[in-house]
Structures are given as C-alpha cells and as structure tokens.
Specification:
Two copies of one chain form a homodimer. Chain A has helices spanning 13-40, 47-65, 70-76, 83-101, 104-127, 130-155, 159-167, 173-199, 213-227, 262-281, 297-312, 315-328, 340-347, 364-379, 388-400, 426-445, 449-453, 459-468, 478-486, 493-504; strands at residues 234-238, 244-247, 250-255. Chain A is mainly α and 506 residues long. The radius of gyration of chain A is 23 Å and the shape is globular. Chains A, B: Broad specificity carboxypetidase that releases amino acids sequentially from the C-terminus, including neutral, aromatic, polar and basic residues.
Chain lengths: 506, 506
C-alpha cells in the first residue's frame, strides 16, 4: 500500500491521510493488546523486552504522525463534502497539532521525568514521605508546565486547557469552574443529608464468604452478557488494577477477585462493561480512523458510571440481580442477607473516607474537587508544590470533615500527578454528571426503562445509548452529543437530583 | 533515536544497522505476542482487526529492511574486528538479500495465492477432493517457483536450495540427498525389525481416564520446570495446534488436552519445552540482533526432538517420571498400568500409519522422505502437480507398506504446500538426526548423563546444550555448530544407531 506520488492531485490527500491514520490505528490496536497482556498474562522476566516493543511501536506511530509531508497533506486536503469525512479531517488536524506542538526533546524529557517520579512515588507513598517526592515531582510539574505552554501556544488555549484538551477534546476550565463551584457549595449538605437518612436504617448484614473466584468470574460473565457485552468481541480477565483495554473488536476488561467480598469485583465488572459497551458500539465503518474514536474521557467515564452507578446500584437492578447473584455464588436467595434490599443498601452505602478509589457515589466528587483546585493552581503557578500537602488536607477537611493523618492517605495516594497525567481528574466528575443527565433523558424517552432493568432487560437502554452516544463517535463535540441527547449542555442538575433522590429521599 | 546524518563516517554504518535491526527485532517480538494471542486467547470476532495489525507491523518491518539506504549501509560497513559483530553483519546481509531478492508484486501475489489456497485446502481435505485444490495449488506452486527462481538468481543457489535457505540457512540439497537416500534404503528393514521386536511383548495396558485438564496442566508445568524451563520468562497455555512462540524473554508454549489420554499432551509439552529451552538459552546480549537468533529450523527441531524423543521417551526418564505422573494424575504408582515399563512401552510403540503428525519415531522419517521427493520434483519441474496423489501414494506404499485409501490421508493432510512453505519438510528429519548426534556427544562428554535423567536431574544435559548449541546462536553455521559439538558434520549414523538400539534391540 504505497502512498501516491508527491505530485498527486490534492483530492488524493484525504485518501493518503486516511491510509496513514488507519496504519496508526492498527499500531494502536497492537499496543492495546500488548498492554493488556503486560497487565494480565506476561511473565515477570519479560518486562524489559515488552518495554522495548512498546517503545518501538510508539516511535513508529509518532513517526507516521509527524512525518515530513504530514502538514502539507493536512493543509492540501480539500474540505470533504461528507460530514463524517469532514469531521475525520478535523480530528486528524487536531491530533497532528497536539503531536507537533511539543518539541521531541521536551517529549522525551517529560517522559523520563515521569518514569523517575513514578518510581520515587512508590516508596514515597509507602513511607508517607512527601519530602522525598518533592524533587522529582517538581521536575514533572515543570516539564508538564512546559508541555502545557507549548501546546497552549500552538492551539490558542490556556495552559491548563491545553492539558485538559488531551483527555477531553473541547472541554475548557470555563466549562468546569461554575459546575464545580456549585458542587462544592452543595456537597457538604448533601453528604450530611445522606448520612442522616442512612442512620435511620440498620447497617446491612451481608452474606459471609468465601466466594470462589471461579464462581465470581462466571457471575461476572453472566452480568456482562446481561448488559449487552458481545463476548465474541471481548473478554473478561484478572489484573491488579481493573481496566478496559484491548483493541477494536477485541475489548478486554479486567477485575480483581477477593474471596471475602464479591460486590467489589462485580461492581467493577459492571463499571468496566460500561466502558466496553461504548467501545463495542463505535461505528465499525470508521474503525481505525480518528473520527471513529470515543469522544474523550468525560463521555467515556459517563458510560461506565451510567452502567455502574445510575443503573446497577439501583433498587430496580438489584431486584432482578439479587437472586441471580445468590444462585451463582451458592447462596440462599430467600435468606435476608441475599435479599435485594440488603445488597442495594450495601452498594449505596455512604461513608466519607480518605481514599478516592474507595469512595462512594456521594463523597467521590469531593475528592475530585480538591484535586482539580490543586492542579489548576499548580499548573497556573498560583501555588508552590511544597504547599500542596497542607492545602490538600485543608480542602479535604472543608468538604468531607476529615483530618488527613498522613500524606499517604492524602496527596500521595494517586499516581496521576507523578505519572504526568495533569488535567485528567475533572473528567471523572464530569462523567458522573453526564451519566445522570443521559440516564434522565433515556428515561424520559422510555418511561418504562427502569422496569425493563428490573427484569434484567438492558436492550432499551443499550439501544438508546447506541443511537445517542456510541454511534456518534467523534463526529461532533462532546457538548453537542450531550446537548443532542438530553436537550441541554453538560451540567450538574440531573446529577444533584439523582444524589438527592437516591441518598436524601427527596 | 534518529539515525546519523547520511554523510556520517562509514564506521557508524554498523551502529546504524544494529539500531535498525533492533527495531525490527522489537517489531518481531510484538508480532510473536500478537500471534500467540490469536491462537490462544483472542475472541473470534477480532480476526479481522488482528489481521490488520499483523499486516501493518509486517509492512513496517519489511519497510525498515528494504529502506532506500539499507544496501548502501550494508556495503559501507567495514568488517568488524569482533567475531560476533562480523557474524551479525553477515546475517544482516543474508536477511537483506533474501528480502530484496523478490519484487514486491511477487511477494504480494505469492501471499494472496497462499491465502486463497489455504482456504480451498480446508474443504478439499475434509472432502478428500484433490481436484478441487488443483487450480489454487497450481497457482501457489507457480508463484513459489518464481520466488525460488528470483532468490536463486540473487543468492547464487539452485531454486530448491533458495527455498531451503529460508528455513535452514546454509543447508543444500547436496547435503540432504545422500542422507535421505541412506534412510530410504535402511528404513523398511528398520521398521520391520521394530515391529518384530514389538510382537515379542504384549501391548501395554494403560491407566484409564478421565484425567482432569487442570491436573494435566499442573503436571506439564512440573515437567517444564524439571527440564529447565524458566517460568519467569515463559508460559504454558492451550491452543488447537501445539506450538512454541512468543517473544524474547517471553517464550510461550502450548498444548492441547484430551481427558482420555494424558501422554499426548505431556509429550507435546516436553517437545515444545525443547524448542523453548533453545530460545531461552540464546545469548541475551545479542537479543533482537540477527546473530542472536536460533540457527535455523533443523537445529531448532533437533532441540525439541532431543528433549522429547532422545531423552523423555527413554526408559531412564520414565523410571523417574512414572511415579511423578501417577501422583499428579491421582493414579496408584504401584499399579502395573502406571509403571515405568508400561508408560515407556507406550511412548515407544511403533505403528505404521497414514498421518505424519501422529507417526512414531521409527516411521516418521518415511513421511518426510516422501514429501521431500515430491516437493523437489515439483519445484524442479520434473513432475506435474496432477500426478502428485499417485506418486505420493506409491512412495508411501514402498516405504511403509500401506495403501493410501483417500487423499485426505495422503497428500492433502499437511498445510505446508497450500500455505507456500515449500522447502520446510526436510528440516524435521534433519533435526531428528542432529538430535541423536548431539545426544551421543553429550553422553560421551558426560557418561553419567542418563543416570542424571533417571533422577530427574536435567542440569548436566542443559548445561551442555547451553554451551555447545544455545549460546552460539547464529554466530557460525549450523554445520559448524554440529561439527564443533560432535566432531562430525550432520549425518545419519547416530540416528540409525539410536533407532536400532531402542527399537531393534541391537
């Protein structure tokens, strides 16, 4: 498949670009499988060999993207008449602009700084020793600010918006600030309201394990099929940290089993299944083209949270699921500890805590608000890194009423900052908001939606998501997808209504 | 890692080449994992997406090998003083010559013909219908002859030797003919002698299953560890057809379990472990460089056959293994059906049959001799393809005394010819010969070698193979490796002695 000659007419430029981006897509699929294998299957001694393969494929991908005539081709391609082709060209230009904005030396320096800092972070977290992390984290922050400034200059954005745009194309700080301000104002009242309502009921008495891993895995697969996961185009496996990865037509989710607690793994499977349904629902005609990709991390997170939080932690879902779960795990479906009410109360339990990834639906946004405040201040140069622990702990106290006793349980808990992923945190809570908004819209279109769920029938929900979210891929902006699907741009109202309804009985 | 400027001095040419070949090595490692995954793990619906990734990585690999300045770099590189670097440069030139010899159009035509023919072969074999295969197999043969002629012209070899050289660098028809003539002369007598000796003993009465797959897999891993397989740099998994694949420091073998018969899977694991020990024993300093690769398919097959046939089908090995096997599979080690004698007689049983892959050690070479005669005659234009079935069946009858009742059990049984792998078959029997020769030499150096095996101690054997075969990689020719290790070039004597000793009591 050679490219056309350099003097080929301009209308071939789009075809040439499509071929090159397809090749990059195929490399990305290979990287998806190599990454999955690394985290699930690979023997420990292969780490170096695998890192070499992944680095080489990444260099080849980058080499195609930044090839010498890429800019000319992108400039020469005439605007396609077809809307999807036009959107594809727009996405090609966006990806190319991101890739070209940062000089190769800075790319490498940032990558090295992150590798060094990730290593330092493992011991710093273990020892709760922020001081030991400060030098390498300072370097990561400096390199990240340089990347942000380079991308800001090239893309005409503010530095923080340039970082955000890598994960959530088109989302800006000006979109986030008013929403997060509103959340910050409402959250403390919401949390105390939820805790008050919860005190009115006894804590649920749960079934006692051990629950065999094989039975939990079989249950996970049953649930995947129930929500609509296509098992001929994906898998469920085990990894230390659950994820959704793999490749096109090969979407691989993972979970981790504990014999004493089946709900963690099960809710994890349902969460990752939400991500996977999005990937499996992207239009196959546009596979390996930029326009065929999922539309950013907020919308991706909305799909996992819609499935896990909105739907599968509902009383309706548990009414159907409780006997299925009891049956799969050898429990007595008639016993009170296996009842829908017990399981539903357990999966909607609110307990303010220090660790973000263990947080419930009500307190989770507080963790994100704190991180967003901290990282915008740090990127914009309004705070010194040495002041981070105290500022972090102050805000946790303000929002959750907790005193962080050591940094291991505070600003050292997440890998995002050490690994250079600044600008990522807000997508979690934007995703939670969009999930509530989409669920409301789906239910408005199909008033019996939750009755279907209560019969284990996800077809109405999935079909609505396919049409209004999945099939649109990156053909329009995330804001337009949400607006077209719900009648309003992404906002906090549906999310706050959902939390008040589920947790405060309003 | 940019290449040096085009006007860089010649002594940088070698460094540039080493960097490029390393990159090709990393791509080959990625392809090894993607191929393993395809055959063990991949969901069925991912076939198309995976084929695209594999094709793209192959094109990128080929693109580096045939890059515009590759020939100049290979010509400009001065002869390195270091023997391994010199051998590396020689191997780079050999691989480049092979890659450049065939014009891209012919590469593609040959690949398409093979894909079409493989598809036709699946139904032709099922229906035992050679006529339906004839058109597509004719096209494969024609394209293969064109490839052979192109490589012959570029490499200064005969057409068949040019094909052979792809799988077994340096081996020529003139090396094979006298050896195979000798085997053809001796084989009928050997087979009848073996059958006669076998008639003197009753057929072994084997343990009755079912043998749980999980217990068989655990036994396989025990045996892998026993022979020296490094489980931190490899794995055992399940596939339809057993193979040894994966990547550097990540050697993955597979087998297939039947609940009624544990010996097939077990012997398969030991066979693939022989291949794997070779890969794990290649010098790590030369990973991803041409000189660091295994030295051709005959030597590779010698390592699997030395392990499986020479060592693990011996009475000595079974003396140690029988109670381990009984214990792993829940058998009674004291019962006669689990005795070393019973298991040893079963794994050395001779039974002439139609199917090559099911053949025992004594009749196997007959299958190879027939295929070698056929494929040399076809490539050299001395036989028409339509005459293949009759000629094939005649020779099977002459060597094994069997009348092939249908082509499904004759010339249609193997995928090699439909898939374009002409010149591969002789490496199986060359490997069997070399295995016997290496085993004799190892035993001469360590007279207690088989006493160690009878205690389940493979360290002496493995250490000898590491020094005399594995660590040499592709630093010298296969003939030199065998000569240095055994004092003689590859020949049939040790192999015939082994067969007469084990099967004819001589």
């Amino acid at each position: 498949m050679p490219d056309p000659a350099p003097n080929a007419p301009a209308h071939d430029a789009y075809a040439t670009l499509a071929r090159r981006f397809a090749r990059m897509g195929h490399i990305a699929n290979a990287l998806g499988i190599l990454g999955w294998d690394k985290d699930t299957t690979m023997p420990s001694g292969a780490a170096h060999s695998r890192a070499e393969s992944i680095a080489t494929l990444s260099v080849l991908h980058h080499g195609i993207m930044t090839g010498p005539d890429m800019a000319d081709l992108l400039a020469a391609a005439p605007e396609p008449a077809d809307a999807w082709q036009a959107a594809n060209l727009r996405e090609m230009r966006r990806l190319h602009a991101h890739a070209m904005a940062v000089p190769p030396d800075l790319v490498e320096a940032a990558s090295r700084a992150a590798s060094r800092c990730e290593m330092a972070w493992r011991s710093a977290r273990r020892d709760s020793d922020f001081a030991s992390l400060l030098p390498s984290l300072t370097e990561v922050l400096e390199r990240t600010r340089e990347v942000a400034q380079a991308k800001a200059a090239a893309l005409g954005l503010s530095p923080y918006d340039a970082l955000l745009d890598q994960y959530d194309p088109g989302t800006r700080q000006t979109d986030i600030d008013p929403v997060f301000d509103r959340l910050a104002a409402e959250l403390p009242g919401l949390i105390s309201g939820a805790l008050e309502q919860q005190r009115a009921h006894p804590a649920p008495t749960l079934p006692r394990g051990p629950f065999a891993t094989s039975a939990q895995a079989a249950l996970g697969q049953t649930m995947m099929r129930t929500v609509g996961f296509d098992m001929t185009r994906g898998r469920l496996d085990v990894s230390l940290h659950p994820f959704c990865g793999g490749a096109e037509d090969d979407v691989r989710i993972t979970t981790r089993y504990e014999e004493g607690d089946f709900l963690n793994a099960l809710m994890g499977v349902l969460h990752e299944s939400g991500h996977a349904l999005y990937e499996q629902g992207l239009p196959r005609d546009w596979h390996s083209q930029p326009v065929g990709a999922a539309r950013g991390m907020s919308l991706h997170e909305s799909q996992s949270l819609l499935m896990e939080m909105q739907v599968c932690r509902s009383a309706e879902f548990m009414a159907w699921a409780a006997p299925v779960i009891a049956d799969a795990l050898g429990g007595d479906a008639q016993a009170p500890e296996w009842s829908a009410d017990t399981l539903h109360r357990q999966v909607t339990r609110v307990r303010p805590g220090f660790i973000r990834v263990d947080a419930d639906e009500v307190t989770y946004p507080a963790h994100i608000l704190v991180r967003y405040e901290m990282e915008t201040a740090l990127i914009n140069g309004q705070m010194a890194l040495r002041d981070l622990p105290a500022a972090f702990n102050d805000r946790i106290h303000a929002l959750l009423g907790l005193h962080v006793p050591e940094d291991r349980l505070g600003c050292l808990q997440d890998i995002h900052w050490p690994s250079g992923s600044w600008g990522y945190f807000p997508t979690y809570t934007l995703g939670a908001m969009i999930a509530a908004q989409l669920r409301e819209a789906a239910q408005k279109a199909h008033p019996a939606l939750m009755d279907d769920i209560a019969r284990g029938d996800f077809s109405t929900l999935l079909s609505w998501l396919r049409t209004h979210v999945h099939h649109r891929a990156s053909s329009v902006s995330m804001r337009d997808i949400v607006r077209d699907a719900t009648g309003a741009p992404p906002g906090p109202d549906a999310y706050l209504r959902h939390l008040r309804h589920r947790y405060c009985g309003e």
